[in-house]
From TrEMBL:
Lineage: superkingdom: Bacteria
Name the UniProt record assigns to this protein: Flavorubredoxin
Family in the record: In the N-terminal section; belongs to the zinc metallo-hydrolase group 3 family.
Start and end residues of each Flavodoxin-like domain: 255-395
InterPro entries recorded: Flavodoxin/NO_synth, Flavodoxin_CS, Flavoprotein-like_sf, Metallo-B-lactamas, ODP_dom, RibonucZ/Hydroxyglut_hydro, Rubredoxin-O_OxRdtase
CDD domains, sorted: flavodiiron_proteins_MBL-fold
Species whose genome carries this gene: Dethiosulfovibrio salsuginis
Length: 408
């Protein structure tokens, strides 16, 4: 996808695919790229909804000109979210269309001026305010903290399109199609999970509030138009339900075993735990070496799985750094309703690995499953038996819980 596509009455997708950026937010790998979806309403007044990252401005303005030609101007730029992957081109847009009015709530306008200086013409909107473009009437709904304080969504009352910005978004560029009925949604599922759990997951309670608010608008949702990933017209409920499930911490009956081991001894314990999980009747068992699997993938799997087992060797007086990093990344995610087990190893300083893992697992968001196993250098037969016992216990807990929770 690189040319504008008409998606509804007077409504165009004018986004771009980014297949060059290595790390989104300089943190999260983009193996399949990402799209910055922007939309244009070519009504009596012309409005663009959300923008693109500044690097892509030349392509973006070309898309705009393709639709409105050189005789028309952009009257409004609606900024649902100020993060620069969407607002980066605001300055250049203001240069191209000096009479353009930037539309946002009070926080939007404040943040935009912090990044880009004075915004000459702005229109401040509040929750429920509307904007008439001619035959299209837009309504704004504020959904704070999904995932910045100023975030809002824009709804077109005429077409039923919801322009939801990061909400309902996904990693993964648009491979040849734009809509859910043109793409293999299954191939985006993992990337939607990874996007949600790493970018938005921490704010799950706010996502739930946002979902309730959108429902309260009483609108007929014909199309969900996020700012990243597929646009949903065949089945908008697919992505709304998917986000609701992730936000309310609905998990799969599955376990993730993440281990850190330099010379394979501690890894043996992880294998024993995995064997026990299977013996306990669990079919969905994921074992990952923390040195080989990138952290955002581990976070995604941890978000999906009802059980997590950390297995770490000691390293310089603490736990293996990759496990420490993973725990640190999960720390702020406000995960709930999951089971955890920990085991580790040491050669000379008993407790070096176990202590930080224990502190992590003792947080109220986890339900701890035993036994805890601490191995001296190389696991004995009895250690391995205990590892399998932990796996079986975890499988039992996972399978006897329905894994459905809502934080709100
Ligand atoms: C660089 C390095 C640092 C280590 N630091 C500790 C430590 O602080 N305390 C300890 O008991 N063992 C320490 N160990 C030993 C390991 O925790 C572990 O027992 C050993 O690597 C064998 O386990 P593995 O095969 O799973 O890597 C260290 C090992 C290495 C290579
Ligand atoms: Fe964002
Ligand atoms: Fe974004």
């Amino acid at each position: 996808m690189n040319r504008p596509a008409k998606i509804s009455d007077k409504t165009w997708w004018i986004g771009v695919n980014d297949r060059t950026t290595d790390l989104f937010e300089a943190l999260w790998p983009l193996p399949n790229g990402i799209s910055y979806n922007s939309y244009l309403l070519d009504d009596d007044k012309v409005a663009v909804i959300d923008g693109v990252k500044s690097d892509f401005y030349p392509h973006y303005i070309e898309n705009i000109k393709r639709i409105i030609g050189s005789g028309k101007t952009v009257d409004y730029m609606i900024v649902n979210h100020v993060e620069p992957d969407h607002s980066g081109a605001v300055e250049m847009m203001l240069q191209a269309f000096p009479d353009m009015t930037v539309v946002g709530n009070s926080k939007t306008i404040q943040y935009l001026s912090q990044f880009y200086g004075d915004i000459p013409k702005s229109l401040e909107v509040k929750d429920g305010d509307t904007l008439d473009l001619g035959s299209h009437k837009l309504t704004f709904a504020l959904i704070p903290m999904v995932h910045w304080p100023e975030t809002m969504v824009t709804y077109d009352n005429n077409t039923g399109c919801l322009f939801s910005c990061d909400a309902f978004g996904s990693f993964g560029a648009l491979d040849g199609g734009l809509f859910d009925d043109q793409l293999d949604l299954e191939s985006y599922r993992g990337e939607t999970y990874r996007y949600f759990s790493n970018i938005v997951g921490k704010y799950s309670t706010f996502v739930e509030k946002a979902l309730a608010k959108i429902q309260d608008l009483g609108i007929e949702l014909t199309m969900v138009c996020p700012s990243h990933g597929p646009v949903y017209r065949k089945n908008p409920a697919y992505i709304v339900d998917f986000y609701r499930d992730m936000a309310c911490q609905r998990t799969d009956p599955a376990a993730l075993v993440v281990y850190g081991s330099m010379y394979g001894n501690t890894a043996r314990l992880a294998e024993a735990v995995a064997k026990g999980l299977r013996e306990g009747g669990l079919l969905d068992v994921v074992v990952r070496n923390s040195s080989k699997t990138e952290t955002s993938e581990l976070v995604r799997d941890a978000w999906r799985c009802r059980g997590l087992i950390l297995v770490g060797c000691s390293y310089n007086g603490g736990v293996f750094p990759k496990i420490a990093h993973f725990m640190g990344t999960l720390e702020g995610k406000k995960m709930a309703n999951r089971f955890i087990g920990v085991c580790g190893s040491y050669t000379w300083s008993k407790g070096a690995a176990m202590k930080p893992m224990r502190v992590f697992a003792d947080q109220p968001c986890w339900t701890k499953v035993g036994p805890e196993i601490e191995v001296l250098s190389r696991p004995s037969e009895s250690d391995l038996d205990q590892g399998s016992e932990l796996g079986r216990n975890m499988a039992h807990m996972i399978l006897s819980s329905n894994g459905c929770s809502s934080q709100s």
